Structure prediction request, 201 residues.
Amino acid sequence: MADNRLYSIAALAKILDVPESTLHYWKNRFDDVLPSFGTGRGKRYRAEAVAIFRDIGAMLAQGLSAGDVRSELARRYPVNVGSGEAKGPAAPQTMTAGGGTGGGVDAQTMLAMASAIGAEIARTLAEQLGRGQSGGPAALPEATMTAFTSELAQARAENAVLGDKVRVLEAELVRLRKDRRELESFLLGKIKGLGEGRDNG
Prediction:
């Protein structure tokens, strides 16, 4: 008889003695070859996933690239490729709070309940946001807008004044550099003249 149990990542981590973070990484890389049921945090994996996760770990440990691992998994487990849902009989699965099977709620029922709760939360949020916006994006009060506009105009004026000062300073710097070069030439000429005078004297 087939093993119809469903496992969470936490349960698989205990079975395989592998950190959950590692399984999450492998799950994200090779999700399309893992027999799973559900989505998001409620995603559960069929018993066959234990062997597939083991093979993934072994192949990565041998130094195979992710592409090579994927090809090998497709060869070994062709029935799982191309589907995010679990393959196999469509018999309803029951899950307990711990993620195992037993006398808990039917998995399809749990998914339907979660979907309904999500839809209700989305509807409530949409109503609240629509009520707060009253037909359009919230605007700032007129006094605040006037103050901001005034501050912006003042900042632009100050920026223009500072720009003018910077241009004056740049021109002054160019002039000082030119004066320095002229002074250096003058002093070098004087020093050279004094040296020649001593030689002649």
